[in-house]
Amino acid sequence: MASDFRTKIDVQPYPFSLGYSSPTMFCGSCFTENIGSLMVERKFPILVNPFGVVYNPISVKLVIESILNAQPFDESDLKFRNGLWYSYLHHTSYSSPDKEKCLESINTDLLKASSFAKDMEYLLVTFGTARVFYLKENNQPVANCHKISAKEFDNQLLSVEEILNSWSALMDDLLMRIPDLKIIFTISPVRHWKDGAIGNQQSKSILNVAVHELIKQYPNNAFYFPAYELLMDDLRDYRFYADDMLHPSKVTVNYIWEKFVGSIISSKAIRLMGDVEKIIAAVNHKPFNPKTKEHNVFITNILKQIKTLERTNPLIDFEREAEYLTSFL
Questions:
Q1: Is this structure's pTM higher than 0.90?
Q2: 162 and 194 share a domain?
Q3: How confident is the model at residue 3, as a pLDDT?
Q4: Which partner for 19 in 89, 152, 266, 279 could form a disulfide, CB atoms 3.0-4.6 Å apart?
């Protein structure tokens, strides 16, 4: 019997490594935001969910296709309901009572994402559920139902074959544009309880099989990070969940983050990340008296450190922090 009473998952190093010169796009469920935000905080060249959180493979595919095609959205792509303009391909965070503001927000982020995608080296995709909702009026798959009545939608559980067919076409397109692109798939450990315990497991199983079939088809470009397994089979305890018992707790996210860093982030980037974290901690420090000479010296030293890091690592951007620190001088 194992003395520590748990099964541990050792995530082996990948045949590549991410660093501070590796533009990476994150796209998918809210778990993508958990890991993506930690990388953004540490100043990696990351773009996270440019259309907002997306849960199912079909919608994630449509988002990535829109980014690649860079076709601006117009009024015909929007709907108006309950005082808000919105897009069924976008998260509710893009909704607005002002049509022009809604379109401006959507197209600004589309342009940014399309430009970013041209140089990206890695794409991290997180699937949350195999269940897709379709508008009854035109059979359009939606990324978000925007709190519209359920009677206006049909829904179905995707098959492994449907996911493979749609994603094989997308992968071919991606690799034609960016032959060396590495795509890292993950399955969100967040449980979709609206489907119930059995439905959630069925959905996750479909995603798991589909993802690993894609990896077989594209062995040089597609990889898997076991975020789902780290919670389900390694931690495996309700104390590692948030209060809703569905989402991972902060402790869990940090544990999975450590596994991610240890297997995918380069040793050089890990050392540099330590320097970045020290600067961020210094910026967040609340001085007892910001008008003292000692505090000015402290600020000046941090600004020098920022300039040194930015000079040697051009993709690291401390502009916001530098402006904040300079305001004390």
A1: yes
A2: yes
A3: 58
A4: 266
